[in-house]
Amino acid sequence: DSISGGAARATSGGGAVVLRVSGASIRGAARLHEECFGPSTVVVECESVDEMLGAAALAGGSLTATLLTNE
User: d(Cα 20, Cα 4) in Å, to the nearest integer?
Assistant: First the structure.
């Protein structure tokens, strides 16, 4: 889901974009594993700590990452 901005703007070099994906579906979304320079972020919503750890393992090569948890 595009929370802000839009997929077209994100791929065309337009303005800022925030994308949301589930922890379960991030594994099959190879384009979201790539580092992107510019005003964009991907929010990965996970159902469990194990799912979060699996999603975090896919974030190799990124300059930054932020983990927010309620546990």
Answer: 10
Single-letter residue type at 40: S
For the stretch 24-58, pLDDT in tens is 888 888 877 777 777 778 888 999 989 988 888 88
Please give the structure tokens belonging to residue 8: 């077209």
Distance CA 37, CA 24 (A): 25
CA dist., res. 25 & res. 37, Å (int): 22
> What letters, b where the CB count within 10 A reaches 16 and e where it falls short, cover 3-29?
eebeeebbeeeeeebebebebeebbee
- Stated as kind and residue range, the H or E segment containing 20 is strand 17-22
pTM: 0.65
